[in-house]
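Researcher: Let's continue the batch. This sequence belongs to GDSL family lipase, and it's 270 residues. Same format as the previous ones, please.
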Amino acid sequence: MKSTAVIILTSIILLLSGCSDELEGHTSVSSRSMTMLEHHAIPSTFYPEDITIASIGDSLTEGVGDSKDQGGYIPYLDSQLEELRSIGDVTFHNLGKKGRTTSSMLKKLDDQEYIETLSQSQLIIVTVGGNDMMKVLERNFQNLSVAVFQREIDLYKNNLEKNIVRLREINPDAGIVLVGIYNPFLSFITNIQEVDEVLTLWNKASEDVISQYDKTLFVDISELFIENGEESILAEDYFHPNDVGYERMANQLFLALNEQEKWKELAIFP
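Model: Same format as before. Here are the structure tokens for GDSL family lipase:
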């Protein structure tokens, strides 16, 4: 391969150096030179793509628990993506707000500020669903059962689907990444099996909804927040991730997006 490249390069140099205004057929020689160059064009991956990402959703997007108040997982994912040769500058827009549910997020998708940001983004990362589940848990804590949650899941799926449809109306081309939820009670409540079962059902419902649409990706983070005794992953409120938790979350997102350059499959560039 190297000898072939040397021969081609030498031929191009000789052709270009032999061109002068005094030679007849100058145009044809130049044309032949350009033809040879086109056959050995620089691959598109040589030019990094700039990418704009809108992060929207609840406290996991806002970054509650982040000691540096820099947006939770966003700065970690930003630096990881920019290390890829195929990505240039990454611009993140944080549209997260603590306490947001699928219902309240749907209302925000009519705000002009949100519409402008989302319509100009190539990727949209969504964290929602945890507060929906918590509201059901609070109402039924004394009578906690999987059957109770099963009835609520249909309502949740309906609301989530409305959000995805609305996002698609705002931006038909952007890739949509939906992040799953985790069990924040594992660090101090270990004997409620129903919570784990409900969380599994909730994540499965989220994945079922998002998988119905093109250019979407579901990222499960539930296993990241199982305490292993080595380091704390929850903030002082024992509910939201701390810096370590957000870094783990960013790592999981990066692995999912970088697998076979999944981010490029999700995003469309002009």
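Researcher: Any comment?
Model: The CA atoms of residues 140 and 146 lie 11 Å apart.
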